[in-house]
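Researcher: Good morning. I'm working through a list of sequences from a screen, and I'd like to move beyond sequence-only analysis. For each chain I'm collecting a predicted structure so we can compare shapes side by side. This is the next one on the list. No need for commentary yet; just the structure.
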Amino acid sequence: MFEMTAAAARRTAVAAQGFTDRRPAGSVTRRRVLQTVDRTALLQIDSVSVAVRAHYMPVFSRIGGYERDILDAAAWHHSPRTPRALVEYWAHEAALIPVEDWSLMRWRMHRYEGGRWEGERRVLERNPTMSRDILDVITSVGAASAGEIEKHLRVEPSGSRGPWWDRSDVKVVCEQLFAVGELSVDRRVGFIRYYDLAERVLPGVVLAARIDEGDAVRELLRRSARAHGVATAADLRDYYRLSADQARPAIADLVDEGTLVPVAVRGWGEPAYLHSEARVPRRARGTALLSPFDPLVFYRPRTERIFGFRYRIEIYTPAHKRVHGYYVFPFLMGGELVARVDLKADRAVDALCVPGAFVEDGADVGAVAEALAAELLAMANWLGLSGVVVGDRGNLAAKLAAQL
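Model: Good morning. Structure tokens for this chain:
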């Protein structure tokens, strides 16, 4: 069996995610943005906006400043000249994926037919006609938010029944129709989903595709393997939240066809697989601020195994119990995670605020502060903020403030 050092595996993982590619020197095109998304295969969506929405940040982390409207247009606008390139669905979590990958999720849509979770099933049971009524509204009026659908249903003639449903139930059923593939997301306004019939959002060829679950899982694992470079079976599964029973035969097939090469990575303690086209750089490269939901770090066991970096998001931790901060970004420098910074885009003071900054043990504090300052200034500029303000929390804060 082929053997890799842990350092080589780390360099391979960073390269697979696009961090060793040269950043564009001029303005960033739609094509370059989509090439970047192709490298990651998905962009996780999250509602937290304290710094910047999660799906925007991985593209910036890899190629630097770009117009966020490019990503918006790729996901939520369509015209004959520039067709929609990305679509929302449940991949790792809620995510943007290439439009053509939507059909690979049909098996998941079938599994969600009775409801994604117990509370959803209860809503469906107590509102047996709501799905049909929502589909009728959207068929008639076009793309609409859950709130607009609720208002429309309230004004429809209903005899002596009065208002039909609680707004929360309408939202739950909209989400259920989205999960089973009857609805998709046409656009977002202020981050609110506007649902439309899937047939009006997606190309006919994608809607018509019927892919066997086994074939679909194999394709998803192929994408996962390419995005990882080198990975354990658990890593490969987590990218699209696949089960062990699904993944086991698919991984064996990918080994048989030569897409995956079994490897032993020193120190990992479990078998791994190298993608046959993965690059193994000789030098550690890649410097970037990473969103908590960046594909390089969103599977925390892998992050700890590869980088020796234990990371937990502390949004739901009471403020007095937080170790590093509310919304903390790991910092990648020279292909290693060397620091973490709590970030907030504060429009009131027109600055990217850094309430806390922490360097990892063994890292060169001066070098980290210099590189991190440059990335923070670039991020502030990208977000349209005039500067960076550093607080006093953390063992890197003083050096970082002095560097800025």
